[in-house]
Amino acid sequence: MQTLLLDGDAVDENTSYPELVVAVEDAFAAYERGDAQMPAKSYIDLPQYNGDFRSMPAYLRVDESALDDTGWDAAGIKWVNVHTDNNEEYDLPTVLGTMIYSDPRNAYPLAIMDGRELTMKRTGAAAAVATDHLAVADATSLGIVGAGVQAYTQLEAIATVRDIETVVVSDLDDERVARFVEAFEDRFDVRGGSVEEAAACDVLSTVTPVESPIVSTVGDHTHVNAMGADAAGKHELADDLLLNSKLVIDDHAQCTHSGEINVPYGEGVLTDDDIYAEIGEIVVGAKEGRIDTDGVTVFDSTGLAIQDVAAAHVVYEHAIENDNGSPFDFYGF
Description:
It is a single chain. By secondary structure, the chain is α/β, with parallel strands linked by helices. The protein has 2 domains: 3-119 and 306-328, ornithine cyclodeaminase, domain 1 (2-Layer Sandwich), CATH 3.30.1780.10; 124-303, NAD(P)-binding Rossmann-like Domain (Rossmann fold), CATH 3.40.50.720. The protein has 12 helices and 16 strands. The strands form 2 sheets. Strands 1, 2, 3, 4, 5, 6, 7 and 16 form an 8-stranded mixed β-sheet that branches. An 8-stranded parallel β-sheet has the order 10-9-8-11-12-15-13-14. A hairpin with a 4-residue loop joins β3 (42-46) and β4. It is globular, with a radius of gyration of 19 Å. It starts with a strand and ends in a 5-residue tail after the last strand. The model has no long low-confidence stretch (mean pLDDT 95).
């Protein structure tokens, strides 16, 4: 048997956003139905290097009776980091990542792939799933706060579930805004703008690492994907905005520890009574998504290991079909 090595270009080439969004939606459903195992994310803190490691294992089974018409199961683990000095000291990205994708029948490593590219893709797909269930059906404008690498996949994925025409991107770095605009100007009416202009759009995605809220008001019926908070102390949206919204989270344990709600939840400003649902409950129909009387909706996404496994499944299947990647004999069997 052979293991497939897939670098970032191969992960990108073998990602189909429409399929990826469905796979991530299937993963949320499997988790809600109890057809997934996802131990808590574990951390190794390395303050001497201004960094940390995080391990994210998961298994999920998508049944033929679930959202898709084909059943599959998959397992894997992502080993990921955040080292804030990487760029300055080593000319490396702050976040790296390695995904090991395994056959659950016998534990053989089917693929080792770039976890950084995979993370960006599945994060965009998670926002698209939430947008599909919580945004107004006729949404045509998307605001993005933060013009880093995550911003690109937010637009790519969300554009598969809504007919996005206008995009407003806001960032303190004008050069990053210019690069983003240039990347998409042939496909969308895209421009730079203020946080307030971005927040007035039908859909808003926030993808920043801030620890002090930068968005306090949005449109009357805006859906917000709060994607930036992935560690304790991070906080992009004002407390009043969270409290006055229909608030949906991806996972209670992760969101209360390190998601967008972690600060107000820890302070007792926001409680479980203020949380409407986990996204899996909406996906399986246990709770309703957007209804006519809804105003602002918010999705708090921390990023789940089941999303990584679902995304790895899509990438691996296409890589096999397309004869991509570099196969090697890992064990010599």
